[in-house]
Amino acid sequence: MSYDEEITAYQLDILKEIGNIGAGNAATALSSLLSTKVDMAVPHVKVVSFDEMMDIAGGPENVVVSVFLRIEGEMTGSMFFILSTQQAESFIRTLTKNPSFCFDEIGESEIGLSALQEMGNILSGSYLSSLSDFTNLNLYPTVPAIAIDMAGAIISFGLVELSQAGDKVIVIDTELTDEGKHQAGANGQFFLLPDPESFKILFRSLGVD
Amino acid sequence: MIKTGNIIKVGIADANTVLSPDTIRTSGLGSCVGVILYDERSKKAGLVHIMLPDSSLARSGEINPAKFADTGISYLIEMLSIPTSRLKAKLAGGAQMFQFAGQKDTMRIGPRNVEAVKKVLNSYKIKIISEDTGGSSGRTIEFDPASCLLHIRTVNIGEKVI
Known about the structure:
The complex is a heterodimer of chains A (about 210) and B (about 160).
Chain A: H1 3-6, H2 9-34, E1 38-40, E2 44-49, H3 50-56, E3 63-73, E4 77-84, H4 85-96, H5 109-135, E5 139-141, E6 145-150, H6 151-158, H7 160-163, E7 168-178, E8 188-194, H8 198-205
Antiparallel strand pairs in A: 1-7, 2-7, 3-4, 3-5, 3-6, 4-8, 7-8
Helix pairs in contact in A: 2-5, 4-5
Chain B: E1 7-9, E2 15-19, E3 23-29, E4 33-39, E5 44-50, H1 69-80, E6 88-93, H2 109-123, E7 127-133, E8 139-144, E9 149-154, E10 158-161
Parallel strand pairs in B: 1-3, 6-7
Antiparallel strand pairs in B: 2-5, 3-8, 4-5, 4-6, 8-9, 9-10
Family (chain B): Belongs to the CheD family.
Protein name (chain B): Probable chemoreceptor glutamine deamidase CheD
InterPro entries (chain B): CheD-like_sf (IPR038592), Chemorcpt_Glu_NH3ase_CheD (IPR005659), Cytotoxic_necrot_fac-like_cat (IPR011324)
C-alpha cells in the first residue's frame, strides 16, 4: 500500500488544520503588508492524481506567477504560492507604489519581481513558522524562487520528490482573497505538498499515529 | 488549412498513440520530457510524458511505466507495435524552471531527464530528428503524424515548429 492510501479521514482533518493555521498567519502578514483586508477560504486537503493537481491550479497551460520553496529540516516538502498574473501585478503595484507596473514591460520587471519574491518570502515564512510552532518541528525554508509560466511546468517540478513514491499527491490547498478589490478568480493559492516520509513525522509530532 | 482530426491529449506521466489525421498533444512540460516516436510510412505516432529519469528511483512496488525514461520509452514502443528500425524521435522539455543557489541533484531533474531519454533512444538505435530541450520555460507540444512536425508553444518565447 502506498502512503496516500494509508491516510485516514481523521488525519486529513489534522492536515486541514495545519493549512488553516499556516495560511491564516500568511493572510495576516499579507494584510499588514498591503494594508488591506485579506480573506482566507477554508483549506482543502485532497488526495489527487498529478493531472488533477494541475487542474486545481487552473489547468496545465494556465499562466501563473509562482513563488516556490523547498522545506528542509525535520520534515521536508514543497510549497507554492500561486497567483494569477493580474493579481501579482496588482500586489506589485501596491508594494512598489508604482500604479503602472506591468509584466509585459521589461525594465520594470526587476524591482517588481524582487518585491514579489520578498512578499513570497514573508508569506511562506509566516506560514512555515506557525507550522513549526504548532508541530514543534525544526523547519528551514530555502530562499524562494520565482517563475512566471504554465502551471503544469511549475507544479510538476514540486512533484519530483512525491512522484518517486507514488502516483498521487496529498495537497493542502488554501485560497487567499484580496477582499473588495478584485473579481473572483484572481486569487492567491497556497499549496503545501509534504514529501511522503513527512506525514508520519508530522502526525507523530502532533501525537496522532 | 482545415484541420479534420481530433487532438489526443496526454497527461503527466502518461502515454498514448495517434494515427493521422488526429494529432497528439501534452501541456505544461517543465522539467518533464515529451518524447514523440513516429513512423512516416504508417503515419502513426506516440507520445510519452516522462517525469523522472530512472525507475530505480521509485520507492513503491508497483510503478507506472510512463513516468520514467527507462520504462516509458519501451512502454511506448510496445503500444505502437512498430519495429524500432522504422521509428524516429523528436523531443521537447527538460527545462530548469527555477534557479536556486546550491542546487541539489533533484533540483536539476530537467537535464537529467533529457540525458536519460537520449540514452534509452540510443540503446534502441532510434534516431533523434530534432529536439527543443533545456532552457527555463514551460512548453506545450503537439505532433501531427501527417506532416511529422512538432509544434511547440512557450509562454515567454512564442511558437516554433521542429
